[in-house]
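In this section we walk through a basic example: taking a raw amino acid sequence and producing a predicted 3D structure, encoded as discrete structure tokens. The instruction is simple. Fold the sequence below.
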Amino acid sequence: MSDKPLIPFTHLHVHSQYSILDGAASIESLVKKAKADGMTALALTDHGTMFGIKEFHVSCKKEGIKPILGCETYVATRSLDDRTGKEDRSGDHLILLAKNKTGYRNLVKLITIANLEGFYYKPRIDKETLEQYAEGLIVTSACLGGEIPTLLAEGRKRDAENAIAWFRRVFGDD
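The resulting token sequence is shown next.
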């Protein structure tokens, strides 16, 4: 029997030591573990930052793993300009993955905006900005802190369907 998994698998939501209070693994150890588990690709999606992306890219290439460059962003509930209440402190979690060079450039732009213009307790973007820089990006609903999972947990199925429709309109099948 082979040591390789029967079904290919790639982690698309991974935090490193650059995700303060949420990740402790070094990038090198993440990549080596992915290689040991027979993975051919791995994503890095630290919270609100891309500080580890260069190190991640180099480490993946060294181990023969396809690096998937991403970030777990915070989407402001209202807008980047709103900084008044608890609802403006972080926003909904959203995973963004670059599928090409345009996507990478747009991801870098979004994270820059999040840190320079949207920062309020955490680096935030908003849907208006996200829509402006959506080209080349793949989006996932993130974790329980994402907009869609939150709406579903609150029993707001119609609102969740509307959110899904918005993401589909902006990102298409990605």
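Looking at the output, two observations stand out. The CA atoms of residues 92 and 147 lie 5 Å apart. Strands lie at 41-44, 66-75, 92-98, 124-125, 137-140. In the next section we compare this with other chains.
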